[in-house]
Known about the structure:
By secondary structure, the chain is an all-alpha fold. The chain has eight helices and no strands. The chain starts with 11 loop residues before the first helix and ends with a helix.
Amino acid sequence: xxxxxxxxxxxxxxxxxxxxxxxxxxxxxxxxxxxxxxxxxxxxxxxxxxxxxxxxxxxxxxxxxxxxxxxxxxxxxxxxxxxxxxxxxxxxxxxxxxxxxxxxxxxxxxxxxxxxxxxxxxxxxxxxxxxxxxxxxxxxxxxxxxxxxxxxxxxxxxxxxxxxxxxxxxxxxxxxxxxxxxxxxxxxxxx
Length: 191
């Protein structure tokens, strides 16, 4: 299996190699069930009237438990998508060991990207409801939804790179500031 050290990052030069495309298609095939569920969820929340009705009921109800159940269901969907894809990727690494850094990175990043995409699909579904942020208007039209969904892929990698740089800093010198930041993140996410 893979070593303890993280695999080298996929560079721009790697994208133009045949290995990258081979491993990309191999990983798309490996994670096909999760990708299919993600596509079906997108179609359900964006196109089907029943999915849009669920989103409207979630927003319009005065009962806080309906909104809480919807958020809980979205987090469950995200968690199941991410975790099952992660397990499939790890099992594939045990059954067919391959030390190529592209394959290791794709097996690690695609489950995370799929979980992030679940959240993106639901957020964009809320934004295309009529009258949710502004009464009588739709905030995001249908062609923009697909564009924003595709733009969320580089946005995910931007968040990943920024967070990775943030974590790798040496916090022993600036520990009080780091603890203050963690408390502020905790307080923001608690509300």
